[in-house]
Design a protein that fits this description.
alpha/beta; 11 helices
Length: 312
Amino acid sequence: MSDPGTIVIALGGNAVAPPNERPTISNQFRHTRASLAPIVDLAADGWNIVLVHGNGPQVGDELARNELSADQVEPLPLGVLVAGTAGWMGYMIQQSLQNALERAGIQRSVVTMITQTLCHADDPDLHTPSKPVGHKLDSARQGRLMARGIPVRDGRRLAPSPRPIGIVESQMVHDLSVAGYIVIAGGGGGPPVYRDPKLGLEGIDAVADKDRVAAILGREIGAQVLLILTNVSAVCRGYGTPRQEAIHRLTLAQAEHLLAGKELGTGSMRPKVEAAAEFVRTGGERAIIAQLQDGLAALKGDAGTTIAKEHA
């Protein structure tokens, strides 16, 4: 088997629980199975693979379950719910990927690891919730949340999202991936933690951005490629306007110029481009943003948007 290197793949939580249908476990398993074809092909090609997944819809639903049952059982804090979703979503992805690999005749083992994401305890973003979680709520539930001081935007509750600065277990992720294991890590961005001078690691009730976490993890394990899979075919200039134009290749300097302007707006693509640029800036060979079904074509340069230090 060839050894093309290490790739970190970031898979969005919406790929598993799209907003237009009920997020039952049956539906989420179905979408998970459908999302894994590119990963099976990468495994067949001999890549060392680390898979990071989002949990925005799932962790918001867990918060809702907490609130509905609060008079019966003790609610769990958000940081613990992030770890919980990393566990059950990891089980779902791990089992589905094991079955897909076996059907393809590929001898690779899959492991899920709960990894902790280091953040600063005084990160100002902890005081200004900005990350949408859960599914869109009806007006009555939105009103109840806002009455309790929980901010809502576009029908979804917002959670604090501090900037990640490191991954506690990155050495273990590296060692497992180079040994041939497919590692599911940084699930839901990983439960955020900070280092207390006396107590050591302590949890934070927040949600880290999984694309930023994937970029940092990629840097820390020496990955060559970061592949961010999303529901948009490429990064676009003037997205949503009549002059919308797909961008297929960017140098790092061009990506940073794009980020410095207003072309990307403040939507979900901006943090993806920021994460991709950070990965390349800190040593990665290239970062790719592509639609889920175009993952392999994008890796070959035939789809999506590739960011590298320079292009030939």
